Amino acid sequence: MKINEPFVEKVLTAFIKEELNKFNFKKGIFGLSGGLDSTVCAFLVSKALKSTNTIALILPYGKSFSEDVKDAQETSRRLGLKSRTIDISPMVDAYYSRFPTKNRIEMGNKMARERMSILYDHSSREKALILGTSNKTELLLGYGTIHGDMACAINPLGDLYKTQIRQLALHLGVPDKIMKKSPSAGLWEGQTDEKELGLNYDDIDQILFLLVDKRMPKKDIIASGFKTEAIDKIIRLMKNSEFKRKLPPIPKISSRTIGHDFLYPYDWDR
Amino acid sequence: MQERSHYLKIRGNCGNFSTMKVALAQISPHLGSLKKNLDIHLQTIEKAKKKNADLLIFPELSLTGYTLMDMVSEVSLIPEKDPIFKKLKAESQELSLVVGFVEEMDKGLFYNSAAFLSGGKILHVHRKVFLPTFGMFDEARFYAQGKNFHTFPTPFGKAGMMICRDFLSYGASYLLFAGGAEIIIVLSAAPGRGTAQAEAYETSQMWEIMGEAISRFSTVFLVYCNRVGFEDGKHFAGGSFIFNPAGEMIARAKYIDQDFLLYEIDMNEVREIRKKWPYKRDDKPEIILEALKRTVSKYED
What we know:
The structure holds two protein chains of two kinds. Chain A is α/β, with parallel strands linked by helices. Chain A has one domain (about 5-195): HUPs (Rossmann fold), CATH 3.40.50. Chain A has helices at about 5-20, 35-50, 65-80, 90-100, 105-125, 135-140, 160-170, 175-180, 195, 200-215, 220-225, 230-240, and strands at about 25-30, 55-60, 80-85, 130. Chain A has a four-stranded parallel sheet with strand order 3-2-1-4, sandwiched between helices. The longest helix of chain A has 23 residues, at about 105-125. Chain A is globular and about 50 Å long. The model of chain A has no long low-confidence stretch (mean pLDDT about 95). Residues about 1-15 of chain B have low confidence and may be disordered. Classes of the chains: A alpha/beta, B alpha/beta.
């Protein structure tokens, strides 16, 4: 689980630079919430690219999460990024005035997709490549909105567990205030991942590390001191979210089919 | 040009001029672009010429990039007929070259291959035998499997080549040792894994351990050229190196960054170290061969 922070910083900044170069982009763009993951992304991008080529979009819904918005603005000011704050409430409210709901998850997902939509539009306007900010823990648990916050062109943080992001954040000099925030998907105020999952991140990451990286059988993980229910819950979340990590299946009819035997790399001719 | 190749020929035949300059091109090829990669090769060759290198080694699949998948057949070359090879052969009049490419041999059979070019000719082509097909690797899905580990004479002595995973099979190194290799050249496209250390991926150590063991116990020069850069998020780890026949690392390129490593070696060291450590003299290939036949014959179907 332990990472060497300077080495990881070097790898991830090299990755950001090289991918932009391959796809002929000079600028990178990402959504900055003021939480830990997107702040770490901001720090990395600011090291990889010129600050004028780094665009942070801060996309609050009305006055909610106002502390996070302030933190995001402070981060982009401190790092000298180009940033823009866009209130998404007019677009989201226009939709909900026709299709009202009280379901917080649905609303949160809709907002995440509204942000994605704005991010992609600005990516086109600015000719900037979209960087994702989902970490390995979230990706494995499916703890994100498909086609929402999970949407991006490249994801520098996708192979780091939440606890490793914390290690990296400390090394990068992310302010204490942001380090201390409870991780939240930000679907509604007061939501925290740990409350919702009923598990703390240290345990989640340990269990995921043993299951995924070490391929340890469940019985051995139980023997190493974790509760059966916790392990079962994590396995269930992983299985139920595989669809978020794959292209949708296509029924195979022809002799060569996308997703089956039409096999080209992402970096095709780059 | 003529003069230089003549000089190399003389040098290969006597043994008085045993020193040579080896250059390792730790490059980041473009994925699937022969044209762009040929440009990289030609630029690097120019650089190596200016530094008076005698032998310039490129990494695995240097002319094509690694993660080719269905592009394999689209970027394959037939060395004897190919215009790219014509250019490289011409360049090899001035310095010997080792390049990695996709080879089409017999119709429709594609190999992950390495060619040794010298004096305007292809001296040898090695076809990768151990095609990694597990986890992140999928080579046996796209390539035909090579069948041999040959040694071959070069202006610098007898050489043998391996490609990446070949080198992690000590049986492969043994075949080159038994075949009389004095210099073993490994072309690699090895992605790094494990980030607990400060300077390099943890897997870089695995290659260095093998480099030390094989050079020392085969009493040969061991030259390992790895690539750098990302392909679909895989990060090639660099860290190319040279071990002398005493098993000492005498040169190493940067980890993860592009580099050009140039080092002068004295091929006479092979002879010198074998006076002290007669592993070659004491080798018993006949016994190993017979014992291996007996072992294999007991395998169940």
